[in-house]
Specification:
Distance between the termini: 38 Å
Strand order of the largest sheet: 1-2-3
Order of helices and strands: HHHHHEHEHHE
Helix content: 40-55%
Radius of gyration: 18 Å
Number of strands: 3
Shape: flat
Strand content: 5-15%
Number of helices: 8
Largest sheet: 3 strands, mixed
């Protein structure tokens, strides 16, 4: 993103953040996100951040670290959980399913969400999503899904079995 958008207009907080959450943030919540970045100078790290995102192999050092981490996850045998939401943002549900299968992970579908999943609706608002998204194949029990989600501080969701 451009320097003007990020430094002068605070576009990450004012546009990208609200656009990456499926519910509307309150004025109080927005003020909490604005507080650490009151001046253009305080937004310099936010302006530099997008240049470090690994996209199409660049920057090479970050791309390599991320590729190595993904390879290590695929090769590991310890239990893992992968949380995803629909439609997602950087990772679609289909991409999450594929990576979960490759990395021997359990995929927990949290229902509706974009990039910042902590901004999803409250647990009560998600009950309908869970009822509509019961797994078609083998999965952990609802009680196990609840305990898994409780341990991870995330609301219980649809849990798919390891591939």
């Amino acid at each position: 993103m451009g320097e003007e958008l990020i430094l002068q207009q605070n576009a990450f907080v004012e546009r990208i953040l609200p656009g990456s959450i499926i519910r509307e943030l309150s004025d109080e919540e927005m003020d909490a996100y604005r507080a650490p970045f009151p001046t253009p100078e305080s937004r310099l790290p936010i302006w530099r951040f997008p240049n470090k995102l690994p996209i199409e192999g660049r920057p090479l050092d970050v791309w390599k670290r991320l590729s190595d981490a993904h390879r290590a996850l695929r090769m590991s045998t310890y239990p893992k959980l992968l949380f995803a939401a629909d439609p997602g943002a950087l990772v679609s549900v289909d991409n999450a399913r594929e990576f979960a299968a490759q990395s021997r992970s359990r995929l927990v579908l949290l229902g509706a969400g974009r990039h910042f999943l902590q901004g999803r609706p409250s647990r009560n608002d998600c009950e309908g999503d869970r009822a509509r998204n019961q797994p078609a194949g083998p999965s952990v029990s609802r009680g196990e899904a609840h305990m898994t989600a409780k341990r991870s501080s995330a609301p219980p969701g649809r849990v798919e079995s390891r591939a």
